[in-house]
Amino acid sequence: MTLEFNDPVITDASVWRKRAEAVLKGADFDTVLTSTTADGLRIQPLYGKAKSNRPLIGRLAGSPWAIMGRMDDPDSIRANTQALIDLENGATGLVLVFENAVGSYGFGLPANANAVAEALKGIYLDAGIDLSLDCGPRGRDAAHAFADASKMLGFPANAIKVRFGLNPVGLGARDGEFPADSHKMGINIGASVNDLIAQGFSGPFVVADGRIIHNSGGSEAQELGFVLASAVFYFRALEAVGISLEDAQSMIEFRLSSDTDQFLSIAKHRALRRLWASIETQCGLHAKPILLTSETAYRTMARRDPHVNLLRAGMACFAAAIGGADAITVLPFTTALGLPDPFARRLARNTQLVLLEEAHLAKVSDPAAGAGVYEALTDGLVAEGWKQFQMIESEGGIVASISSGALQNRIAISRHAADQALAEKKSIMIGVTAFLNKDEKPVSILAPFPPNASNYDSAFIPLKSYRISETFDRAQDQEGSVQ
After folding, report:
1. Is residue 213 included in any domain, yes or no?
2. Is 455 domain-assigned?
3. Average pLDDT estimate for 461-483
4. Measured between alpha carbons, how far is 291 from 326 in angstroms, rounded to an integer?
């Protein structure tokens, strides 16, 4: 059937619904054609143009996002070689992933100046490269290692564009133990930031990192609530050591995960900008565009049929770009198997290059503005994310909420619901629960995962990273061993 532009099925939603119900032949409209997110938001089958189409202020139209290459190889010489290849072939930034960082996924650079200097040898740190540190639990060690390495290499601090990524709240939540009480943590973070400022660095210095929540199975609104609460904690800590809130605005980096749910990932990135702008306004500040970075989701990486991870990462990168991320890191498709080799890293880099230079995704500022589905989901996540933030604050703030286990309990419910939906095939994962590749060929990696560190007692429930395909990986491994 051909539809003309004046056909009422296009211009009248009630007419469209009647025709849709006729096609359904008695099946329930809402059951078949609507869905509900983990946060209870309903996704309709059809949306009209949103009433407001004002774009969010973030990455400017025509300004590319930073294409980040990962430096996570413990061998600093090999890490240096890969970094130079990345920069020579389209990457515009580097993430120095240190041991036991949130994004280390089994590997990472040692946090000492000599190793960092070796890894950065031959790289012009003062050439406008976007640098980011993904720190381990002792973030100050990583920060000092980078600062000392840059001196050893002859680059002044005020000429380097670096985000230090200090994040004791997030790393403590992941590991099940904070380095100190809330008050002492605030003093320590403030002292670290003032030290780096005294050396000539301009930041951002701290990061409100939502990956901890996403990697452990949390929902979009839970991730937003955690990021807001973490940023508020750092805001207060910086103010307490004499840094004005106006200056502190530019000292916080915001980081999210982006996954294969295009609609929700785009809306989540847009919602965070609106939410933090609201907090800035309520603090009596003029709202400024935040520095928003994104990483493709670790929890959606599969060990089986890993080439499908290329599609998952491509969709996640697309969503982060449309959502307005200022810098994007794409995980190589073999991340779930071990240390990725140069080929896997090349594909991760080229995924971004294709979307940036061939699909021109950065040409329009906030391209989702005015689109009914994106505006509706953004509005919904703003409301639900604010509820999660208020809940955390009512529990005494982010440190108290985590220490009591309240936040972890809510995340466990979300994770269980998602795992159950996958187990019952209400949702599917290509190559894992559907369309399994029986002729799967091995892929190349540089090194297998090192043995897991010994378990240690934690003060509260840790928010450990997991992949949603792990249960199915183990079942297929056992099936293979039986055969």
Report:
1. yes
2. no
3. 77
4. 6
What share of the chain has pLDDT > 70, as a percent? 96
Domain containing residue 219? 66-387
| Alpha-carbon distance values, 16 to 27, 321, 372 (Å) | 16, 32, 16
| CA atoms of 324 and 155, how far apart (whole Å) | 31
Burial class (CB in 10 A: 0-12, 13-18, 19+), 420: exposed
Q: Which two tokens stand for residue 471?
A: 């249960």
* Torsions phi, psi for 294 (to 5 deg): -145, 150
For residues 132 and 293, is the Cβ–Cβ distance under 8 A?
yes
- Cα gap 354→357, rounded to integer Å: 5
C-alpha 324/C-alpha 364 separation (Å) is 10
- Judge whether 165 and 195 are in contact, CB under 8 Å: no
CA gap 418, 301 in Å, rounded = 15
Let me know if residue 473 belongs to a domain: no
**430-471 pLDDT per residue, tens:** 888 888 888 888 899 999 998 875 556 789 999 999 999 988
- Which of 73, 468, 418, 446 is closest to 303 using CA atoms? 468
In a domain, 397, yes or no: no
Per-residue pLDDT reduced to its tens digit, 52-103: 778 888 888 889 999 999 999 999 999 999 999 999 999 999 999 999 999 9
Can you name the residues that pair with 98 across neighbouring β-strands? 109
The proportion of the chain whose per-residue pLDDT surpasses 90, expressed as a percent, equals 78
Burial class (CB within 10 angstroms; exposed 0-12, middle 13-18, buried 19+) of 148: middle
CATH number where 356 lies: 3.20.20.240
Query: 445 forms bridges with which residues in the sheet?
Result: 340
Q: What is the DSSP letter of 434?
A: B
Which token pair is 23?
């096609």
What total number of domains does the chain contain? 1
The tokens for 423 are: 């187990």
Query: Which tokens in the block code for residue 78?
Result: 């090999």
First to last CA, the chain: 51
Residue with tokens 């989901």: 377
Tokens of 231: 């940023």
Supply 392's token pair. 């955390």
pLDDT, position 218: 97
**pTM higher than 0.90 for the full model?**
yes
Paired with 163 in beta bridges are 132
Q: What is the CA radius of gyration of the chain?
A: 23
Residue 463 burial (10 A CB sphere; 0-12, 13-18, 19+): buried
Sheet strands (E) in 190-237: 206-209
Contact between 469 and 302 (Cβ < 8 Å): yes
Compute the mean pLDDT over every residue in the chain, rounded to the nearest whole number.
92
Q: Is the pLDDT of residue 481 over 50?
A: no
